[in-house]
C-alpha cells in the first residue's frame, strides 16, 4: 500500500453514479459533416442541462435546451447569481459552436509547407503517438525538457493541459496574463497584497480609467453598473474613446493617452492636502503615508491638467466627491491593462486612492475577492534531471529594445528584467525574445492549447519568426486559428457544450463555483483536453527514453496516483472529489450548475486586528517596502511618455460586446453583427488627410502595415486611432473573417511593462493614409 | 371582461447595444444567421454634438403589437391576426407573400423569412407563453432593458414600471396604439 495522502480517490467513491444528464445521452451515431444539418443522434425528447459558458472568461451560467439531441438554445440560469441571470450576445451565440461548419473535426497533420494549408487527416491515436514521439525526440536531442514550451489560455480545461506540461516536466509554461491583466494584478497587489474587485452595485462614486464595462463585458460588473446602479451614483469615465461606457457616464474625460497616472496623482494631492482622507483608517491600516504626502506635493491638479488635458477643476471635483462618498467610492481596477510601459506604477496610483479614503472591504468600496473552497488532489509529478529554469527569467539576461525612448527609459530603472515574473505565466513578449535569441538554451518545440498568439501577441512578424525556428508545433483548439494554421499537428478539442470540465471557484464579492457537463455528445467525436492529455501520457509511458532521468519509485507513484487514479478514471470522479466537502455538492452541480456558501456579498474578511495583508509590512502599503530591493520606485513616480509626432497617431486598443479577443469572429451569429473592423479616426484629422467615411486607408507602424475602411467619427481624440481586435485573419480555416479588415498583431510594437512583464500595447505610433 | 394585454416596457437608457437580445431571439425563433433577418434590433441613434461634447443613445425595437393593426387591415388572406392577449401573430400557411403588411407597418418590423416562405416578425415568443416564460430578449438582457407583462393587470411588474415612469410610444401620429412603451 502506498502513501494514503496520494489516494484521494478512495474518498470520492466508485463508479460514476447515473447522473441526470449523462443517463440521457444516447450512443453516438454519425453526424452529417455539413454542420448546420440536424444532429442525428437518434435521441428523442427535450431536456434542460445546467452548465457554464466559455465564449469569454466569465463562465456565466445557462441551461442548455436540448431537443432531440441537438442544442436549440442556451437560456440564462436564474440560480447563477454571479451572471445575474443573463447571457450576452456571445453567450447566446455559443449554441452554434458545436455545429460550426468550420470546426476542426479530426486531427490533422501538416502535408506541405508550414502555412500552406495542406493537411492529412489522422486518428487521435496516431496524433497522440506523434506528440509522444516528438516530446521524446526533443528531450533526447536537447537533453532539456524545457526545450518544449507549453502555451495555454484561460479556461476550465487549462488545468488538464498543465497536467501534460507537468508530466513532461518543462518549466516553460506561457499563459495569457502577460497579454492581458498582469500589470493590474501586480499594481493593486503591491498596495493590498491582492487584486480586488470594485463593488459597483453599491458604490456611489465610480472612476473608471479606461475600463469599458458596457462593451468588455464582465459579470457581474457589466450588469451592476447599470442594472443595480444606486440612485445618485456618479460614474466618471476616462478614455480617449467615447465608448458605450462613456455614453452611460455622468462625466467623460477624453484623457490624453499615457497620462492617466497624472490624473490619479492630482487626485491624491487634493485628498491629502485638503485633509479629505480617512485619518483613522490611514493610521491603523496603512504604511508610508508621510512619504506619500511628501511625494505628491509636486503633483498639483494644475500640473496634472497640463499632462492629461483634464481641467484642474475637474480633478479637484473628482477628489472631493470621491472623499465625500467614501467609503462607497471606487477607482475601478480594470482587466486588460496591457497599455503602457509604466502600467504598474499607474495601477499603484489608482489603488492608493481608495486606501486613503478607507474604501476597503466594505459595501460600495474596493473588496478583496472571496472564493468557494474546493479540494484539489495532491499529485506528485516526477522530478527530472534534464530541466532548465524558465527561459524568460532575469538571470538569463536583459534585452535592450523593450522600452520606448523617453523619460521612462532614461530614469535608469530596470528595463525588462521583469522584476515580478509569474512563475507559471511567464512574460509572453520577453519569452518570445528569449526564444529568438536561442540562449542559453534553445526552445524547439511548442505545445499550444487554445492560445492564438499569432493574433493575440504584438508584432506578428516576430511571432511567425519564432514559429519558423521550431522543430515541431502541436496546436489543440476547436477551429483553425491563425496559430493552428502554422502548426504541424492540429488536435481538435470538443467544444464546451460537448464535454465535462472540472470545477472552478469564481472568486469575487459574490463567490460561486461552477463546472461543465456535456449538454450534447461530441458532434464530431472529438475529445476534451482531459482526454487528450490522458491519450498523450499513455503514449509517453510506452517510450522508455522519456523516463530515464527520473527516480523509478517516483515514476511508479506517478503512474498509480495520477495516470491510473486520475487520467484513467472518469473526469466526473475528479469533479466529485473537488466538491466532496459540500453536502450533495455534485448533485447540486448537476442540477443547478453552481454551488455556493452564501448568495450575499462577502465583505469584511480583512476587517479584524489580527488580519495581515499579504504585503511585506502586513499593512496596506502606500510605499511598497520590497520594490526598492529590485531597484524599483517605492511610490508611483510620473515620468512623461513620448507622444506622437506630427502626422503620427497613437494606436489604442479596446473591446466590444460581441466578440472575445480572436476566438469568436468565425461564429456566424456574431459575424453578422460585425463583419469587419474599421479604423476610428477623429473627423477633423480625417478631413486634414482627405479621408472620408468608408475610404480604404493604410495604417502603418514600424513593424507592419494593414489596410481597412475608415470610420470617421467624433468618438475619438484627434491624437489616436483605433480598430477592433480579431480581424484581418491569415487562416483560411476561418472563412468568415479571412483577410477581412485589419489585424492588430500585425502593427503593434512589442514593448513591455518591466515589473509585471505585461505587453505594453498602447505604445505604438502609426501613420494613416488613403489607400 | 378583464382579458390579458401583453406588452413590454423598455428603459432604452439602460441599453448597452450589446445585441444579446437579437442573438437570443434568433435561436429561440430559429431565424437563420447571416441573412439580415431580424425580429428585433437595436438602432444606434445619431451621435449628438461635436468632440468632446457628445452623447449617444440606442433604441431597441421590434413589432409594436399595436392595438390598431395596419398590417392586419391590409392583409388579403387574414394571415395576420391577434391572439386573445393582444399579441399580433401570423398564420404562415395563409401568407401569400404579397408584402402588403410590410408596406403598411410604420415600424418596419416585418421581414420575409425565406425559409418559411412567409412574412415573419416578433411574436413576444408566443411559444413560451404556455410555460409562463418571458420572451427570450427579455430573459437574456444583461441590464434588464425590457419588462414584459400583462398591462391589464395593475400588479404586473410591467404595469408598475409603467405607472412609476413617464413614457412614450413610437410614432404616435400613426395612431396604431403600440403595446411597447419606452420610459422617458
From TrEMBL, chain A:
Keyword Metal-binding in record: yes
InterPro entries the record matches: Asp_de-COase-like_dom_sf, MoPterin_dinucl-bd_dom, Mopterin_OxRdtase, Mopterin_OxRdtase_4Fe-4S_dom, Mopterin_OxRdtase_prok_CS, Prok_Mopterin_Oxidored, TAT_signal
Keywords: 4Fe-4S, Iron, Iron-sulfur, Metal-binding, Molybdenum, Oxidoreductase, Signal
Domain of life: Bacteria
Cofactor: Mo-bis(molybdopterin guanine dinucleotide)
Single GO molecular function: oxidoreductase activity
Gene3D superfamilies, alphabetized: 2.40.40.20, 3.40.50.740, ADC-like domains, Dimethylsulfoxide Reductase, domain 2
Stretches assigned to the 4Fe-4S Mo/W bis-MGD-type domain: 46-102
Signal peptide residues on this chain, from the entry's feature table: 1-32
Classification via PROSITE patterns: 4FE4S_MOW_BIS_MGD, MOLYBDOPTERIN_PROK_3, TAT
Cited PANTHER family: TETRATHIONATE REDUCTASE SUBUNIT A, TRIMETHYLAMINE-N-OXIDE REDUCTASE
Family: Belongs to the prokaryotic molybdopterin-containing oxidoreductase family.
Protein name (database record): Molybdopterin oxidoreductase
From TrEMBL, chain B:
Alphabetical list of InterPro entries matching this protein: 4Fe4S_Fe-S-bd, 4Fe4S_Fe_S_CS, ET_IronSulfur_Cluster-Binding
Origin species: Geovibrio thiophilus
Keyword presence, Metal-binding: yes
MF (Gene Ontology): 4 iron, 4 sulfur cluster binding; metal ion binding
Domain 4Fe-4S ferredoxin-type, first and last residues per copy: 6-36, 54-85, 86-115
Keyword annotations: 4Fe-4S, Iron, Iron-sulfur, Metal-binding
Pfam family, one: Fer4_11
Protein name in UniProt: 4Fe-4S dicluster domain-containing protein
Gene3D superfamilies, per the entry: 3.30.70.20
Amino acid at each position: 500500500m502506498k502513501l494514503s495522502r496520494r489516494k484521494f480517490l478512495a474518498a470520492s467513491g466508485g463508479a460514476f453514479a447515473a447522473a441526470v444528464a449523462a443517463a440521457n445521452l444516447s450512443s453516438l451515431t454519425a453526424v452529417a459533416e455539413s454542420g448546420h444539418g440536424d444532429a442525428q443522434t437518434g435521441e428523442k425528447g427535450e431536456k434542460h442541462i445546467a452548465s457554464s459558458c466559455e465564449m469569454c472568461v466569465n463562465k456565466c451560467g445557462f441551461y442548455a435546451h436540448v431537443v432531440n439531441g441537438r442544442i436549440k438554445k442556451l437560456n440564462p440560469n436564474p440560480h447563477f447569481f454571479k451572471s445575474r441571470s443573463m447571457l450576452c450576445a456571445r453567450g447566446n451565440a455559443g449554441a452554434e459552436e458545436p455545429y460550426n461548419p468550420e470546426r476542426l473535426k479530426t486531427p490533422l497533420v501538416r502535408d506541405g509547407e508550414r502555412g500552406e494549408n495542406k493537411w492529412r487527416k489522422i486518428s487521435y491515436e496516431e496524433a497522440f503517438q506523434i506528440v509522444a514521439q516528438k516530446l521524446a525526440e526533443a528531450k533526447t536531442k536537447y537533453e532539456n525538457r524545457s526545450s518544449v514550451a507549453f502555451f495555454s489560455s484561460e479556461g476550465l480545461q487549462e488545468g488538464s493541459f498543465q497536467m501534460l506540461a507537468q508530466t513532461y516536466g518543462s518549466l516553460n509554461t506561457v499563459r495569457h496574463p502577460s497579454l492581458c491583466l498582469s500589470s493590474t494584478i501586480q499594481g493593486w497587489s503591491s498596495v493590498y497584497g491582492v487584486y480586488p474587485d470594485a463593488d459597483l452595485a453599491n458604490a456611489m462614486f465610480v472612476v473608471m480609467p479606461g475600463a469599458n464595462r458596457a462593451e468588455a463585458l464582465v459579470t457581474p460588473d457589466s450588469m451592476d453598473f447599470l442594472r443595480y446602479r444606486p440612485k445618485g451614483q456618479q460614474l466618471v469615465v476616462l478614455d480617449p474613446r467615447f465608448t458605450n461606457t462613456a455614453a452611460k457616464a455622468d462625466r467623460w474625460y477624453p484623457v490624453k493617452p499615457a497620462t492617466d497616472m497624472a490624473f490619479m496623482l492630482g487626485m491624491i494631492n487634493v485628498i491629502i492636502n485638503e485633509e479629505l482622507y480617512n485619518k483613522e483608517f490611514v493610521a491603523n491600516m496603512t504604511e508610508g503615508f508621510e512619504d506619500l504626502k511628501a511625494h505628491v506635493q509636486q503633483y498639483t491638479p494644475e500640473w496634472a491638467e497640463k499632462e492629461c488635458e483634464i481641467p484642474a477643476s475637474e480633478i479637484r471635483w473628482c477628489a472631493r466627491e470621491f472623499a465625500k462618498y467614501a467609503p462607497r467610492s471606487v477607482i475601478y481596477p480594470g482587466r486588460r491593462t496591457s497599455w503602457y510601459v509604466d502600467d504598474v506604477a499607474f495601477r499603484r496610483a489608482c489603488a492608493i486612492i481608495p486606501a486613503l479614503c478607507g474604501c476597503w472591504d466594505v459595501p460600495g468600496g474596493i473588496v478583496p475577492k472571496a472564493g468557494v473552497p474546493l479540494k484539489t488532489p495532491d499529485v506528485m509529478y516526477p522530478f527530472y534531471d534534464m530541466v532548465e529554469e524558465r527561459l524568460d527569467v532575469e538571470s538569463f539576461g536583459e534585452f535592450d529594445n523593450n522600452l520606448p525612448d523617453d523619460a521612462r527609459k532614461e530614469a535608469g530603472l530596470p528595463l525588462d528584467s521583469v522584476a515580478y515574473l509569474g512563475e507559471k505565466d511567464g512574460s509572453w513578449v520577453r519569452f518570445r525574445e528569449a526564444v529568438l535569441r536561442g540562449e542559453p538554451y534553445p526552445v524547439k518545440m511548442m505545445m499550444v492549447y487554445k492560445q492564438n498568439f499569432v493574433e493575440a501577441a504584438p508584432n506578428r512578424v516576430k511571432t511567425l519568426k519564432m514559429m519558423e525556428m521550431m522543430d515541431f508545433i502541436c496546436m489543440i483548439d476547436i477551429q483553425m486559428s491563425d496559430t493552428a494554421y502554422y502548426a504541424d499537428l492540429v488536435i481538435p478539442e470538443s467544444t464546451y457544450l460537448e464535454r465535462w470540465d472540472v470545477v472552478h471557484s469564481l472568486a469575487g464579492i459574490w463567490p460561486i463555483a461552477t463546472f461543465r457537463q456535456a449538454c450534447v455528445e461530441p458532434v464530431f467525436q472529438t475529445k476534451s483536453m482531459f482526454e487528450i492529455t490522458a491519450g498523450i501520457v499513455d503514449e509517453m509511458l510506452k517510450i522508455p527514453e522519456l523516463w530515464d532521468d527520473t527516480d523509478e519509485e517516483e515514476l511508479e507513484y506517478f503512474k498509480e496516483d495520477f495516470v491510473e487514479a486520475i487520467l484513467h478514471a472518469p473526469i466526473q470522479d475528479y469533479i466529485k472529489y473537488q466538491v466532496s466537502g459540500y453536502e450533495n455538492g455534485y448533485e447540486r452541480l448537476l442540477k443547478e450548475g453552481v454551488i455556493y456558501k452564501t448568495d450575499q456579498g462577502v465583505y469584511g474578511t480583512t476587517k479584524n486586528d489580527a488580519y495581515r495583508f499579504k504585503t511585506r509590512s502586513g499593512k496596506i502599503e502606500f510605499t511598497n517596502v520590497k520594490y526598492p530591493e529590485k531597484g524599483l520606485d517605492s511610490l508611483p513616480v510620473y515620468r512623461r511618455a513620448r507622444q506622437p509626432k506630427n502626422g503620427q497617431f497613437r494606436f489604442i486598443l479596446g473591446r466590444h460586446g460581441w466578440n472575445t479577443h480572436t476566438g469568436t469572429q468565425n461564429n456566424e451569429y456574431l459575424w453578422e453583427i460585425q463583419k469587419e473592423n474599421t479604423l476610428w479616426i477623429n473627423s477633423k484629422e480625417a478631413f486634414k488627410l482627405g479621408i472620408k467615411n468608408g475610404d480604404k486607408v493604410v495604417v502603418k507602424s514600424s513593424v507592419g502595415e494593414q489596410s481597412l475602411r475608415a470610420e470617421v467619427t467624433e468618438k475619438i481624440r484627434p491624437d489616436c486611432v483605433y480598430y477592433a481586435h480579431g480581424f484581418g485573419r491569415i487562416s483560411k480555416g476561418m472563412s468568415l473573417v479571412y483577410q477581412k479588415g485589419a489585424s492588430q498583431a500585425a502593427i503593434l510594437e512589442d514593448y513591455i511593462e518591466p515589473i509585471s512583464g505585461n505587453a505594453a500595447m498602447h505604445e505604438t505610433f502609426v501613420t494613416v493614409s488613403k489607400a | 371582461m378583464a382579458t390579458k394585454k401583453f406588452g413590454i416596457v423598455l428603459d432604452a437608457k439602460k441599453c448597452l447595444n450589446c445585441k444579446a437580445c437579437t442573438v437570443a431571439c434568433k435561436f429561440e425563433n430559429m431565424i437563420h444567421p447571416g441573412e439580415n433577418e431580424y425580429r428585433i434590433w437595436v438602432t444606434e441613434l445619431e451621435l449628438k454634438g461635436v468632440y468632446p461634447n457628445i452623447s449617444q443613445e440606442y433604441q431597441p425595437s421590434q413589432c409594436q403589437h399595436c392595438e390598431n393593426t395596419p398590417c392586419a387591415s391590409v392583409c388579403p388572406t387574414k394571415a395576420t391576426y391577434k391572439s386573445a392577449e393582444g399579441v399580433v401573430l401570423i398564420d404562415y400557411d395563409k401568407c401569400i407573400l404579397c408584402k402588403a403588411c410590410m408596406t403598411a407597418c410604420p415600424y418596419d418590423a416585418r421581414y420575409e423569412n425565406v425559409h418559411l416562405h412567409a412574412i415573419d416578425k416578433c411574436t413576444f415568443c408566443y411559444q413560451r407563453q404556455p410555460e409562463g416564460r418571458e420572451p427570450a430578449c427579455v430573459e437574456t438582457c444583461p441590464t434588464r432593458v425590457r419588462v414584459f407583462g400583462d398591462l391589464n393587470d395593475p400588479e404586473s411588474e410591467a404595469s408598475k414600471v409603467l405607472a412609476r415612469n413617464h413614457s412614450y410610444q413610437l410614432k404616435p401620429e400613426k395612431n396604431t396604439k403600440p403595446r411597447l412603451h419606452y420610459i422617458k
